[in-house]
Amino acid sequence: MAVFTRGFGGRRPDSERPVPPGQYLTDDFPVLSIGPTPNVDTSTWQLTIRTEEGAEHRWDWAALQALPAEDVTVDIHCVTRWSKQDTHWRGVPVDAFFADVETAAEYVVAHSFGGYTTNLPLDDLLDGRAWVVTEYEGEPLEPLHGGPVRLLVPHLYLWKSAKWLRALTLHLDDEPGFWEQNGYHLYGDPWSEQRYG
Amino acid sequence: MSSWHAAQVVRTEPLAASARVLTLAVPGFAGALAGQHVDVRLTAPDGYQAVRSYSLARVGRDEVVELAVDEVRGGEVSPYLVHEARPGDRMEVRGPLGGYFVWRPHDGGAVQLVAGGSGIVPLAAMARARAAAPTSDAPFRLLAAVRTPADAFFAKELDSTEGLTTTWLYSREAPPASTRPPGRLTLDDVTAHAFAPDVGARVYVCGPTGFVEAAAALLVDAGHDAARIRTERFGGV
């Protein structure tokens, strides 16, 4: 039975488009990070994909720039309840990095500079549903928001979109990442409100 | 953790011009760790609901939730909690939430707290938990940045909390006796008042995004190990 709050009117979202349950719309861009923002230099940055067999694939900044990037307009949803519509990013679909990767693994752990990790099913990174992004709203991605390079997986809560991306490791089993070990959901679908584990 | 508890306001107390403490009775709420937060859900007469997260200002009492809420101008939920809610009003609470930005009484070693504005709330919960744990002799320091003396939450209490050394830093207007001119947190403030890096303190920084970015960078510049600095940011940029 609902618990009504006397005197509370609330403000209905003026968006035509639905937002996931329990979310509110914001125009600014809140920042949630577990520690200091790391300084990541593009001259030394590398992205590594390591398979369950230990095979490694690497891209430096120049190799990243050589991959076909695309412009992406998506809504993003943070587990702390803000959502932001029509955000503009530029990046490379994760598919491009997996073109030559042989794996039987179904799970990925994304690793950040600074030590953060988050786990995702590999399928959720493929088929044009996730990007390795370097620009936000037409500008190089700020360190505050994960620059120079972050993962963008907009169909899951934003803690899955690891900032300061440095590696994707492949695993046969789903291995909980940082927040997933600290009370949050293993998968994190905002439309099913999978906030807490 | 994932179920909502019915909650009722039992007390409100002014805390600053735009902030107050709300004490809620929450049957079934089994207590929390210092630093954790809860989700608060308000329901309008037509069934419309809004949810926000608030840090707990005090932990350790079962079935009681104490929040210290600062009004976000133009916000949807905080103006209600700061100006409208009164004893007897009902809402819902879920939690406690968050397992990282926490301090446990058996965590040994020195603790450096760094607060910006209302970011002091979860840090005050840690200092209170430290004072309430007679077994803990962990030395605590708090560096609290506020706009003016009137914005200093829990000042009297935190100035006299057992085991805690508090330094207030004012950005806009300092008390007449203050020798430090008002201004933003600097590297000198950090080196003068925070534990030295070789103490190896755990560091907790909480505040608005811009403050936390700046403070965490200064702590790293001062020599603190980034891996020992835990942060909680709020608000956008």
From TrEMBL, chain A:
Protein name: Sulfite oxidase-like oxidoreductase
Highest taxon above the source species: Bacteria
Coiled-coil segments on the chain, per record: none
Residue intervals of the Oxidoreductase molybdopterin-binding domain: 35-179
Sequence segments annotated as region (Disordered): 1-22
InterPro entries: OxRdtase_Mopterin-bd_dom, OxRdtase_Mopterin-bd_sf
Gene3D superfamilies associated with the record: Oxidoreductase, molybdopterin-binding domain (3.90.420.10)
TrEMBL record, chain B:
InterPro entries for this protein: Cbr1-like_FAD-bd_dom (IPR008333), FAD-bd_FR_type (IPR017927), FNR_nucleotide-bd (IPR039261), MRET (IPR050415), OxRdtase_FAD/NAD-bd (IPR001433), Riboflavin_synthase-like_b-brl (IPR017938)
Domain of life: Bacteria
This protein's UniProt keywords: 2Fe-2S, Iron, Iron-sulfur, Metal-binding
Residues of the FAD-binding FR-type domain: 2-103
Cofactor entry: FAD
Cleaved signal peptide residues: none
SUPFAM superfamilies the UniProt entry points to: Ferredoxin reductase-like, C-terminal NADP-linked domain, Riboflavin synthase domain-like
Pfam families: FAD_binding_6, NAD_binding_1
Name the UniProt record assigns to this protein: Ferredoxin reductase
Naturally occurring in which organism (per UniProt): Isoptericola chiayiensis
